[in-house]
Amino acid sequence: MSFASEASEDVPPLDFGELFAYFLKQSVPLFDQLGIKRDACDKLVESLCSKRKDFLSASEPSSLRNDNVGDELDLRIASVLQSTGHNYEGGFWSERKAVISDKRHVAIVTTASLPWMTGTAVNPLFRAAYLAKSSKQTVTLVVPWLCKSDQELVYPNSMTFNSPEEQENYMRNWLEERVGFKTDFKISFYPGKFQKERRSIIPAGDTSQFIPSKEADIAILEEPEHLNWYHHGKRWTDKFNHVVGVVHTNYLEYIKREKNGAIQAFFVKHINNLVARAYCHKILRLSGATQDLPKSMICNVHGVNPKFLEVGERIAAERQSGQQSFSKGAYFLGKMVWAKGYRELIDLYAKHKSDLEGFNLDIYGNGEDSHEVQSAARKLNLNLNFHKGRDHADDSLHGYKVFINPSISDVLCTATAEALAMGKFVVCADHPSNDFFRSFPNCLTYKTSEDFVARVKEAMTRDPQPLTPEQRYDLSWEAATQRFMEHSELDKVLSSSSSNSDCSSSSMEQDGNTGRRMRKSASAPNISDVVDGGLAFAHYCLTGSELFRLCTGAVPGTRDYSKQHSLDLRLLPPQVQNPIYGW
After folding, report:
1. Buried b (16+ CB within 10 A) or exposed e, 297-321
2. Contact 188, 210 (CB under 8 A)
3. What's the CA gap between 422 and 395, in Å, rounded?
4. Is the torsion defined by CA of 148, 151, 152, 158 positive or negative?
5. Using one digit for the tens of pLDDT, what is the confidence trace for 156-174?
6. Bridge partners (DSSP) listed for residue 143
7. What pLDDT digit, counting tens, does each position of 246-255 carry?
8. pTM: predicted TM-score of the whole model, two decimal places
9. How many Å apart are CA 473 and CA 165, to the nearest integer?
């Protein structure tokens, strides 16, 4: 008895060149890790396929041919395999995911939470609120819970919380005051520990276990590199149908400024590549200032607090009625650490001290480098006036006309977007982190220090243009959510009628011989998936070793959560959740 399809005789067999070309094509992710350029592989694949192409063009119908050599090769492989009756059921490392039969569920996992006013605490909170406005999905925001000793180190004004419920109420009240509507999403907590040296929160234990399997449908990992550096647990792409990473931070830029920074940056670059490949289906980079990771594309998926747009509209109305809205000059606002643009600012002012004579800049910020920054400015006798940090929405800042931001370490500066939303001029560096803002007429970029002086003088001598309705919309969270839905392919995933299909990577093609639609990934094993699974397994093995974790900078004892975490979050004691004989 033959199991081949009736169309098998109509499909030309594969030759060695096609098989070798397919192997090379599927091995591109491995070559990326080895530093071999993708262009070289693509040219070799095209060369191997060119000899066969003439023959296929004459023997196959035009509907099967494709201008893209890679797609044509995939379809050839799938067509031949389908003609033999072969059906590929899954990857070497992959597991079958839970079937999601009811309303789709989105879990947003981030690395910080309010009241820490950092981008990875604020922006995921807004994303959850606006994604939850749709009736297509339910949303859960998953944030780190810190024990009280760590809360005292991280949260401003010695603010602490006795329970997750207390912190959740604070977060909701803060958010709803700004968005102006009742939010409809859940907030869950996972154990985290604060690392003083890196000023960041490291997950303790397997973060994925805090999302129930029945809700493990779509995951959005805010800072996927950070979340997975020491992740020792379930692979995200095994547990979830679709995993999207959002890159917030230019880690390599910060690391290069440290002692032995070049060496550290080399290793971190490759670790970031590994975790991006192994744990995500799609990655969105907020700007070109981030590391070019596998499976990534550039798209600004952040908006601004609606309050800033309201301030901009009020100021525009005042100016239209003839009132003087901008009574102050220029200012800079940001956490006072050297890496946040303070080094560049002082260098610019020191170099052009005479050109900027009489021009005073007010600076608002707190941070661990406050004393050094202010001492350097006083030593050079610069016209910089330092003030304590405050919320950018504070009424005292509305009267400034010009926001100056010389930082080149940011990925996408939230304060720059907020200043533009309020109708101010922004003077910033000609840098990939500012590409999104270039289309706004009030954004004045500079390439040299001489350009900086010219841009500052230009901004001080004329008035900014009012934002158009289209420009205000582009800065809003409504527009940011729309961009996110489109570029993360979440709109396609949510509209999928088949809830038990793998939303991440399957693609359908039309078979020119039979007229049937074929799923390429279901017909042919994907070497890329095997490589990704192997990387994930190797990462799992290494992060299971406490010695390896400590040697690479992990916080001691973060492989599993602590006893205090289990008490605060009402979890099983760590010795029960992770017995000594378990791995």
Report:
1. ebbbbbbbbbbbbebbbebbeebee
2. yes
3. 12
4. negative
5. 888 999 999 999 999 999 9
6. 189
7. 999 888 877 8
8. 0.78
9. 34
